[in-house]
Amino acid sequence: MSAPRDRLRIAVQKSGRLAETSLDLLRRAGLSFRASRDRLFLFGDNLPIDVLLVRDDDIPGLLREGSCELGMVGRNVLDEQSLATPGVVFPKVVSTLGFGRCHLAIAVPQEMPWGSPADLEGLRIATSYPALLAAWLAREGVAAEVVTLNGSVEIAPRLGKADVICDLVSTGATLQANQLREVATVLDSEAVLARTPRALSPLLAELAERLQARIDGALSGAQ
Ligand code: PRT
Ligand code: ZN
């Protein structure tokens, strides 16, 4: 067995919509870093805290297996993975971060009449969030076919792959460009700070508490 780590690890998105703002928040929390040669890590200079730069989808798994103690990730990604693997203990949300806001929405072709979620009965719904969508359909008591796509969900109706979609929306420009209109919200999302469900050594637990407090301080403008 390898020696227990004596530096805390926090995972953030390497590149993408959350990447810059996540690092910015860590800087505002008082951390300074230098990059590793392979660009996988940023080593903390002033505290024993390192930043792991990864794809956002990998963050819940890294927290679950204890490869890092904290992570910044969209609630949509965290909840989708938790729902998709029932019975597994998942990371806990310790703070909401106020950026990366979006919502997972049902959108239908502009000309399709809409009254209520019951109108989805028997339709094919394209999404990259099959578990969140299935849970919402079950809550609404609607039987529909979930078509899982990894990208370009918004063009699925035009390609004949699905009748309607369930995708993330922020400004609504993508839906509009694809002649779709939003009719229901499945999940409101933003970036969150999540913590490993594993027990931490006293040293890492103390570092995690300190970093959480510094992040909360930066968010409330106290720093
Ligand atoms: O490479 P990696 O896997 O790390 O990144 P990624 O491509 O999976 O994710 P990325 O960077 O696109 O998004 C990261 C997180 O940002 C998401 O998981 C959400 O929590 C959050 N977020 C906020 C968004 C959006 N807003 C958003 N608008 N994620 C995606 N979108 C997409 C949406 O899927 C659609 O294609 O933007 C389009 C809609 O935007 P509007 O403005 O036209 O409505
Ligand atoms: Zn991703």
Q: Could you describe the 3D structure shown?
A:
By secondary structure, the chain is of the alpha/beta class. The protein has two domains: 8-100 and 190-219, D-Maltodextrin-Binding Protein, domain 2 (3-Layer(aba) Sandwich), CATH 3.40.190; 102-189, Periplasmic binding protein-like II (D-Maltodextrin-Binding Protein, domain 2). It has seven helices and twelve strands. The strands form two sheets. The chain has a seven-stranded mixed sheet, with helices on both faces. A five-stranded mixed sheet has the order 9-8-10-7-11. Helix 3 (75-84) packs across helix 4 (130-140). The protein is elongated, with a radius of gyration of 20 Å. The N and C termini lie far apart (40 Å). The site of phosphoribosyl ATP (PRT) has 21 residues, from helix 3, strand 10 and helix 6. Pathway: Amino-acid biosynthesis; L-histidine biosynthesis; L-histidine from 5-phospho-alpha-D-ribose 1-diphosphate: step 1/9. Keywords: Amino-acid biosynthesis, ATP-binding, Cytoplasm, Glycosyltransferase, Histidine biosynthesis, Magnesium, Metal-binding, Nucleotide-binding, Transferase. One of its GO terms (biological process) is L-histidine biosynthetic process. Residues 55-212 form the ATP phosphoribosyltransferase catalytic domain.
Features:
magnesium ion binding, 30% strand, binds phosphoribosyl ATP, elongated, D-Maltodextrin-Binding Protein, domain 2, 223 residues, alpha/beta, 7-stranded mixed sheet, 12 strands, histidine biosynthesis, binds zinc ion
